[in-house]
Amino acid sequence: MLDATAIATFDRFLFAFTIASHIILVSMSIALIIVISTAEFISLRRNDTYYRALSRRLSKVFVIVFGVGTASGVVMAVELVTLFPAFMTLVSQTGAVLILYAEIFAFFLETISLVMYIYYANYLSKYAHWVLSIFIAAGALLSAIFITMLNAWMNTPNGFDAAVFIQSGNVTGIDPWAPFITTSTFGEVAHVLPTVLFAGVMLVGGYFAWRHIKSNDIEEKKMLTKGLKIAAALGIGMIFLAIITGVNEITTLLQLQPLKYSAIELNPTPGTDLPEKLFGTLVNGQFHGSIVIPHLQSFLVQIETGITSLPGLSQFPSSTWPPLYVHITFDIMVIGGFALGLFFLAYFVDWAFLKRKPYESKLFLYSWVPLAFVALIIMELGWVTDEVGRQPWIVYNVMTTQQAANYNGGFLVPGILIIAFYVILLPLTFYFFSRVFNSSSMSEEEKKKQEDATGTGVNY
Amino acid sequence: MGAVVLLLFWKQANSNVLEYIVPIWEITGTFGALVVVMGDFAYPTLLIPIASMFAPLLTVFLILFVARNASIAFAEFIIKRKWLDRVKLYKLYALSTLFLGITFLVLLSALVSGVGVNLAEGTFSLGAWVSSPGSLLFVIGTLGIGVGVAPVFFSLNLMKKIVLPLTATGVGLSVLAYYLYSPSFVSSLMLVPVTLTLLAGAFFVASKKTAAIVSNKAIFITILSVIIFSLQFLVYPSAMGGVINVDAVTTSGPLTPAYLIITVVGGVMLAIMLWFYINITMRSKRHASEENK
Predict the structure, then answer these.
(1) From the list B23, B251, B253, which residue is nearest A119 (CB)?
(2) Does A119 touch chain B (CB under 8 A)?
């Protein structure tokens, strides 16, 4: 039999695995619907068959990603109760539950709009059909915003008397609306949205690039090129926003979660002239395996935030330190982001100043495919850094993850089954994604479209 | 309802059933999420015992839910390749939905009767649940009603013969299950769901005219809602065989008005969206019937 700590560790692993799988689907869903909506709008304005074919194909793919994503969202909602019941009890006794409740209505907006968009396209005008895609995107983005709000509340809890709760376990002094706007909400939402959209756009664009390389069909290549144009434009915009909001997040961390900052930067002691450490860890207060660049950390923070005095781990009891590997996950995230930034900078220069066509360049196409996985990895690592960096707390300075966990070992076997199920399901989803996207040629699709008597909107 | 019909009568019934299931499976899944969150809000103090008792069962439920969504999403756009085709995927959808329903019924019966539940220790014994005489009758009876009234909802004239025998058997077994759980459940209020269920079946087989009335989706869903509400009041305000007083564990205090505000705003938004949805489905039906003429 497993002891209580091992069961709690399994709880954490199972939820981490579920959410790590779920955010891949979420990022792809958000990116897909924005690409679909953009492609459909351009096809309407220019009467462009390639953009029309692109939006039509991606719409089918979207249903698959949405269907699996919806289910995995419900898995998460139930797992929050089954794996961390004390946490969900606190959420349900404070206004934080209202964020989840509001999210459901955003989800309805997305779902009902999607159903009309997909199944009743023939009974809508072309522009009404396109407007529905905006509603789907709005629903998807609002869902993401609400769930990030809940995460921000976990980082900076408010809306109840935390001191009384810690003392007695009673929830008092409830302000139901406060959890919607905590001190970290705006910054976190502003950073999470572009990074999630960026990762999704990179994955979708990576798929277009890969198909472009593999395909011998000139018509299909033209369609994929149009898709790459949209993906690149979104990618450039989103990485720009991600960098700006990422810098803002550093300021927020310094002010609101200095311990997390200290762990992420691997600062053993506070100071005003601290070095930047790449990788490595701390052994007996000494850096081990790090590349140390003197003065750089303080220099960068001062430029970015104006703050000169930086915190260190020694200011906090070691029992409250998060696992220090968050320093490594953070470094990989930053280096990966830097590489992606360089890629899009080169892309932009090639297009804007050298007046070339990077979306048709083999160098860019071949680079995009591996960089799509880099984008996925850095999104996942960003989330790991945020969540593991808050440990041992599930609700910062209020409730530890151990206090929140469910110690019933009865779901170890079903939990392992869930993991096994996801291991099969995710590749299967992408397999079906690919099959559905390539199920017919451009010419076949156009012929089918013209044969349709009504000929409005996207017709299945 | 549709799951068993798809599994047993695929050839005869798939077009009628899929016509209703395919455009709305995404929406029904979202209502599932709504129920989870409303449960979180309404009964916060029950979350820890429920998580402790039902975590394994809920985990099985989740696997089935993902299988349901994935299989129908794949089935919609699949192009036959080797052994895998849409029929197999739709049947996988039906199978996972059926087991999802059974899992839900096990959970529901435990919540209603408290059979297999040890609240003090935070455990649920499936063995104890199965060995209780009411449990299997509850599941079989409910499934009987579900399959019995399925032809009514999906207007499946081919399956008219099974409607009354299955519905009546299902109703009988369900009433017996409630009685075995607690004789106090079988009060005069029980006449409402029993009568309405049997009347729905009788209307469907009586004549084409009455069948058209009861197969009307709005009327069917209204009857179903009345049945569910009346069943709820058989048990209310107790749960788990009288161990829990529902009123005592329901959220109250400053969260309630905020919850009400979001419910009103979100509910109005949802009503408008559903109105658009119904409007467009009616338009598609009119269009289809005009084309047939």
Answers:
(1) B23
(2) yes
Within a 10 A sphere around the Cβ of A112, how many other Cβ atoms?
25
CA distances from A424 to A21, A207, A411, A417, A442 (A): 11, 20, 20, 11, 31
Expressed in percent and rounded to 5, the helix, strand and coil fractions of chain A are 75, 5, 20
Which tokens sit at A188?
Answer: 């976190």
Residue contact B55–A82, C-beta within 8 A: yes
**A71–B70: do the CB atoms touch at under 8 Å?**
yes
3-state SS of A66-87 is HHHHHHHHHHHHHHHHHHCHHH
Q: Which residues of A touch B27 (CB under 8 A)?
A: 108, 111-112, 115
Give the distance from residue A71's alpha carbon to the nearest chain B alpha carbon, in angstroms.
5
* CA distances for B253 relative to A38, A304, B266, angstroms: 46, 44, 21
Which one, of A137, A140, A153, A138, lies nearest residue A98 by Cα?
A153
Report helix, strand or coil for B122: coil
Residues in B closer than 8 angstroms to A4, CB to CB, are none
Question: Per the CB < 8 Å rule, is B47 touching A113?
Answer: no
Taking the CA of residue A288 and the nearest CA in chain B, the distance in Å comes to 42
Global pTM reads 0.89
Measure A189 CA to nearest chain B CA, in Å.
21
Q: Please say whether the beta carbons of A298 and A272 come within 8 A.
A: yes
What DSSP assignment string belongs to A93-111?
HSTHHHHHHHHHHHHHHHH
Quote the CA–CA distance of A102 and A98 in Å, as a whole number.
Answer: 6
Residue recorded with tokens 């009876």: B141
Mutating which of B77, B263, B264, B274 best tests the A interface, going by the most A Cβ atoms within 10 A?
B77
The amino acid present at A344, given as its one-letter code, is: F
Number of Cβ pairs < 8 A linking chain A and chain B: 225
pLDDT tens for chain A, 460 residues long, are 678 888 888 889 999 999 999 999 999 999 999 999 999 999 999 999 999 999 999 999 999 899 888 888 888 888 888 899 899 999 999 989 999 999 999 999 999 999 999 988 888 899 999 999 999 999 999 999 999 999 999 999 999 999 999 999 999 999 999 999 999 999 999 999 999 999 999 999 999 999 999 998 899 999 999 999 999 999 999 999 999 999 889 888 998 999 999 999 999 999 999 999 999 988 888 888 889 999 999 999 998 888 889 999 999 999 999 999 999 999 999 999 999 999 999 999 999 999 999 988 999 999 999 999 999 999 999 999 999 999 999 999 999 999 999 887 777 888 888 898 889 888 988 988 888 888 777 777 766 666 654 433 333 3
Which chain A residues have a beta carbon less than 8 Å from that of B255?
A: 93-95, 97-98, 174, 176
> Which residue from A279, A276, A201 is spatially nearest to A240, judged by alpha carbons?
A201
Residues of A within 8 A of B81 (CB-CB) are 435
Residues of chain A with Cβ-Cβ distance to B266 below 8 Å are 101-102, 104-105, 108
| Cα–Cα separations (whole angstroms), residue A332 to A128, A287, A326, A374, B164 | 44, 18, 10, 10, 66
Q: Classify residue A295 by its DSSP letter.
A: T
DSSP-assigned letters across all residues of B172-205: HHHHHHHHHH-GGG-SGGGHHHHHHHHHHHHHHH
Judged by CB atoms closer than 8 Å, whether chains meet at B26 and A105 is answered as no
